[in-house]
Amino acid sequence: MIDPRTPATLLVVDDSATKRYLLVSWLSRAGFTVHEAETGGEALDRLLELEVDLVVLDVKLPDMNGFEVCERIKTDSRYGVLPVIHVSAHAVDVVDRAQGLNRGADAYLVEPIEPDELIATVQAVLRYYRARRRAELLAERMVKLAEATLAINSAPALPALLTAAAEGARAIFGVPVAVVAETSEGESLAATVVEDTSPVTVRRWAVSGPPVTVGSLVRSDEPADWDVIDWPVDETVVAVAAARLRVDRPPVYVAVPGRSQTPGFPVLRQLSQAVGAAVEAQRSYDDEHRVAVTLQRSLLQSRLPEVPGLNMGVLYEPAGAQTEVGGDFYELTEVGDQLLVAIGDVAGHSLHAATVMAEIRHAVRAYAIEGHSPGEVLELVNRFMRAVLPTESATVCLLTLDPATGRIRMASAGHLPPLVHADGKVRFLEPRGALLGITAPRRAEVEFVLPPGGTLILYTDGLIERRDADIDEGLQALAACAAEVEPDLNAFCRRLHTRLSGTGDQADDIAVVAVRRTL
Fold this sequence. Notes:
Elements: E1 9-13, H1 17-29, E2 33-37, H2 40-49, E3 54-58, H3 66-75, E4 84-88, H4 94-102, E5 107-110, H5 115-154, H6 158-173, E6 177-182, E7 188-193, E8 201-204, E9 215-221, E10 238-244, E11 252-257, H7 266-299, E12 310-317, E13 326-335, E14 338-349, H8 351-369, H9 374-388, E15 394-401, E16 407-413, E17 419-422, E18 425-428, E19 445-449, E20 455-459, H10 471-481, H11 489-501, E21 510-517
Helix pairs in contact: 2-3, 5-6, 5-7, 6-7, 7-8, 8-9, 10-11
């Protein structure tokens, strides 16, 4: 790392032993580390072996002139960005000085050279180059910081977020890294990475040290305090950036070797703030998701009614772990001597959608218990929604089933068509009606008889809809998959889910209800 307090290393190139001795003496007394070369070829070779910050180069050399050597240094990437100061043992005209500067030299001194002038010129050129290197390094790191921030904010879960932060920090600083944060459950995780090709490791590890107030800071810790990672043996200081966004939230930490940092720690500090903001967003999401899932599962039936003459099976599968919960629901309740069956889907995916789902489900059950028919229940629920939930919408399929006769009365509010498997055949029913939440004509009822051995299947759109396929393809796939129905209806529902949804993360909740008449 570039540190202006570190003495610079110079290479003096001159074929005159006396002149070379004077230059080396003046520069050494000024605090520089100085190496020597007698010819241009020797100088080019030594520059590949040594870490040199500046070259003091004579114009007249026995094997090649200084202009050519300078041009080689400036155009060959093996030498990096290296400043060159020309010195000449005799007076030269303006054309020669211009040629030297045009071919890459940063300064041109002509004898007689005063020691103070030489030292001042070297210091001025070094200041410029060090400032330039710091600016270039900062610009490069800022670009990588932007890339790392994007990866951090795209991570689907905290372990992946910490992994992205560790990989990003390694790409920025090129050194071992440790990133530490707490989950919403209070478990402290550390993501560490050492070598350029090694994978990131995430494990439990807690930071010990002074408390961190709200805001951000960078402190210097002992490597032993961060034994979660093997630091380089010569590392004496670990730079630790801590960011805390809220007083009721724990801080996040990003730790790197101190030697990797520029004064003020601008990039390290910004990286820790980006990690802190992303972790806070992840924690907030996890809190809402956990509450929503708990609420949604608490609203689903844990036990189905036992109705003579009927077998029932259900499946509820929430969307992928990092997708907000939706408003899918089902209801199977005995109302008098009949079975009330409902399935629905509230628009949206959020804690709010889950609460709206609960209100609609309770309203459906309450109106049905009052003795209203399925079509009347949907009309009453629609009025309720337009009065209490005017911005919401939902689809519902609702029916009553008489176990003794198999008679079904069904009404639908924009829901997908139920499927009937009977006598070895599969067919879709077509109850029609507008979804709930809008002004629309009354939803008509459909009546039919489910024969003994027949199975009625209701489902939500997550089972059949895919972004890359038409919905008709999903309906056809469902009909083909339901051509056979297992004796165990729960197993049948699971097979439908496995066959139709695949093994990847699903984008929507799925609810399936199957009812078979056995009499």
